[in-house]
Amino acid sequence: MNPPLSRLCATLDYGFQQPALLEEALTHRSVSARNNERLEFLGDALLNLIIAEYLFQQYPGASEGEMSRLRASLVKGETLAELARGLKLGDWLRMGPGELKSGSFRRESILSDTLEAIFAAVYLDGGFVACRDLILRLYRDWLAGLVSASELKDPKTRLQEHLQAHQQPLPIYNVLEIRGEPHLQSFVVECVTAAVRAVALGSSRRKAEQEAARQALEQIR
Ligand code: MN
Fold it and tell me: Which of 124, 146, 168 is the last residue of a domain?
């Protein structure tokens, strides 16, 4: 028999108004037509949104690409399964006997899907803030282990610091070309260091400089 749901609620630090939602989240499709697949669908979207919002707020210097990579590492099945194991979620899972015997890979994905379903159940039961609190609480160690905010400084700052650390002269930025109508301009900017030269296009001089610096850093590495 599964341990009481109240113990899981205590572990999650969340009490359900509607325990049926938690039961549904814990029910694999091998057991019932009323299973966690629809909740998993919603929970996946919530997790992506909440992690995206967190990264957006915490890493103002991070590019879209950097935030995407960080998010992907956090929302992937392996990470979720590890969190689920930490919660001992498997103890509460309602699965058919065939599924219980299935290989560990299947089990990993069942665990991660179940955790996503729980996120949706908390959202439907207690609202967005409750869901966000739960996710950020569960992810606390993972979020703390992410690259420090300083490593995601904007590219111009990172390039400057890199060059200074290697006793090289500071980069020079030149506007090579301004394209388009005055109200819809784009800028072609070059970034020149002792070792490399990068040219980038941006909708403002500042954006073009940042992109050129990013490319220069990539060439240096
Ligand atoms: Mn999933």
Answer: 146
Annotated catalytic, 154?
no
169 and 64 belong to one structural domain: no
Prediction pTM value = 0.69
pLDDT digits (tens, 9 = 90+) for 119-149: 999 999 999 999 999 999 999 989 988 876 5
Question: Residue 192: which domain range?
Answer: 155-220
What mean pLDDT, rounded, does the chain reach? 91
Ligand 1 midpoint to CA 118 (Å):
11
Where does a domain end: 146, 167, 185?
A: 146
**Same structural domain, 171 and 94:** no
Whether residues 201 and 115 fall in one domain: no
What CA–CA distance (Å, rounded) separates 106 from 118?
18
Q: Which of 116, 125, 209, 211 is catalytic?
A: 116
Active site (annotated) includes residue 116: yes
Is the Cβ–Cβ distance between 142 and 74 less than 8 Å?
Answer: yes
Identified catalytic residue from 40, 44, 125, 211: 44
Whole-number Cα distances in Å, 112 to 17, 25, 171? 24, 11, 46
